[in-house]
Amino acid sequence: MMLLSGDPPRSRLLSVLLIAIVAGLALAPLLFPGAKPLNVATKICIFAALVASYDLLLGYTGTVSFAHTMFYGIGSYAIAIALYTLGPSWSAIALGLAVGLPLAALLALAIGLFSLRVEAIFFAMITLAVASAFMVLASQLSWLTGGEDGRSFQLPELLRPGTVFIAKDVLGFAVNGRTLTYYIIFVGCAAMILGLLRVVNSPFGRVLQAVRENRFRAEALGYRTVFHLTYANCIAALVAASAGALNAMWLRYAGPDTSLSFAIMLDILLMVVIGGMGTIYGAIIGATIFILAQNYLQALMGLASNAAAEAGLPLLPGLLHPDRWLLWLGLLFIASVYFFPTGIVGRLRETSRSRRPR
């Protein structure tokens, strides 16, 4: 309870889902051998932390920002440039973090101080303009960022796949540098999510929720709303930059498509809505469902299409064709918004509350 700052899931089914997801991620290198399952598990860890940091803004303050991928990209590029310039060493990783994280926090501070005084829609437009300008800048500074091609780099020897700690013939699975990198990412993302749980359940987090509900009333009570919103923006930027650094370390690459793309921002919004706004647990659920659907829905539709064709069913083989997986992903999102307007976590908590005896 202390670890979660007095904020348990408050639903038995939600608790089971969270335990299953965390256990699956913790044992992913052992239970799901192969490159793709490990890549999917890593992406779930990274996006769970990234979505949780965005939920701190959208779900707990009601602030819509389109600059979150900019902070994510700053962390990615800081690590990539440091390792590309200085070579594969731990000091280069430390330097990348020492430059990238404060830079993200300073940009978030500047955006907050100069933009959070305006109305919500104008703040969203300002952050969109800043993020677009940063993307153009990253593409044009080819001498530093590699331009559209990005930067590829090598990791320290301990984190390379060729470094074997335990051979496969000893325990039945190999433990190498790639496995160590995964667990660094897993532990780092878990620590960030637990830290955000403490933030939102602290007195500071309660003020953020008061600002979300009624900003003028919060100001009338004596709270400096611009300070609290700016501070929350800086915390979210630090977590996003850290997630970007971990993503770059896993991919051993940083580029516009993997770090600064507006499609990443749309994915973050979808994960927040699916999981449930204003619930850090929703980031874990939303990221897991969305990324699993992204990677495995097409294959499942292929199996279903073949089964329908073999059974001689009309129309279904065409409707379930793997090339239409994006259509079905969109329909699943619409259905989740319709049936779970407060997100999966919010709906599970409401169901659990209604079943509780008065």
Q: How would you summarize this macromolecular structure in one to three sentences?
A:
By secondary structure, the protein is mainly alpha-helical. The protein has helices spanning 12-26, 28-31, 35-58, 68-86, 90-115, 120-140, 142-145, 168-171, 177-200, 203-213, 215-220, 225-251, 256-259, 262-275, 280-310, 316-319, 325-339, 343-355, and strands spanning 151-152, 164-166, 175-176, 253-254.
What features would you describe in this structure?
This protein has 358 residues and is mostly helical. The protein has a domain at 22-265. The chain contains 18 helices and four strands. It has a two-stranded antiparallel sheet. Helix 10 (203-213) crosses helix 12. This is Inner-membrane translocator.
Report on the biggest sheet: 2 strands, antiparallel
| Strands, total number | 4
Radius of gyration: 21 Å
**Backbone shape:** globular
Oligomer: single chain
Structural class: mainly alpha
Share of helical residues: over 70%
Specify the number of helices: 18
Order of helices and strands: HHHHHHHEEHEHHHHEHHHHHH
C-alpha end-to-end distance: 24 Å
Instruction: Give the strand line-up of the largest sheet.
Output: 1-4
Low-confidence stretches: none
| Approximate strand percentage | under 5%
Overall mean pLDDT score? 89
